[in-house]
């Protein structure tokens, strides 16, 4: 076995050891941070192995759920370890994830895919369904709290928070049922292009079949075990880094919201690489499934999970976006709906999304 092939096996075990040393104050901050990044990569690698084994669209669902577990673990851990600004950390991380997915990730995929293949196509029916659910979830979770009056400020009262958490789970659960059972074909690559891809050796069928053929049941079980180890190690490493991260952001004079951007970027980096590679291979359907699936899981699962923690330990949580955040979110939803409205994309749509992300990032650093 090649040394690089051993990394996904060694890293989770090393991460568990470093996590224990970090909590005891025996591991340098830089080493802890590097191991945390490597562990996130390893976690998503093992999720991808399992995803290849079970096939589409279950594969992208597993990836999305794994990323969400990582995100929830990081958010809750940092909320518990950070005193000032912890109430808005969940909001900042969720909006950062949505902006990264819908603008940076989707923009890069559309741009590089358009540059290489001129036009790319996908199943517009499934995309429209996903965007409808995503629009409802984002507005209910991140915009509506600014307009309720039971509690002062951009927060939900406890009954409202419970209601929104339950509604989010219902919407996400319904989407998953549609995606995997009732209308699975809506989220698969259009047949004519899939056939052409197989002939050219670059289609979804070729890559997926090749991946599944070389992953045994034993390999999938090993990856599942290492995935659990990786997820646990990520939470422990994040707990060890929570205080140094807060101090670094404060020392640099940066807004607290930047912590949410860092968390979202760290968690989404491996999945972003997978989506980009799919776009380059002319498999835009896979890229969009990954992007929208992650965005839906981020809202549909992260918000309820954080809500439960908030209620159980009486931890304050502010979900309502600022005026600037609301404008950028609504602009993103509008542009995404228009970009994916025809079932075909070019470099133009990609460039528009990247510009919007640039505006979001700049106004986060320079509010």
Features:
two-stranded antiparallel sheet, 367 residues
Descriptive overview:
The structure is a single chain. The protein has 13 helices and 2 strands, in the order ααααβααααααααβα. The chain is mainly α and 367 residues long. Strands 1-2 form a two-stranded antiparallel ribbon. The longest helix has 35 residues, at 217-251. The N and C termini lie far apart (50 Å). Mean pLDDT is 81; it is low at 193-213.
Structural class: mainly alpha
Q: Overall 3D geometry? A: globular
**Order of the strands making up the biggest sheet:** 1-2
Gap from first CA to last CA: 50 Å
**Cα radius of gyration in angstroms:** 20 Å
Helix and strand pattern: HHHHEHHHHHHHHEH
* Total of DSSP H or I helical runs spanning 4+ residues: 13
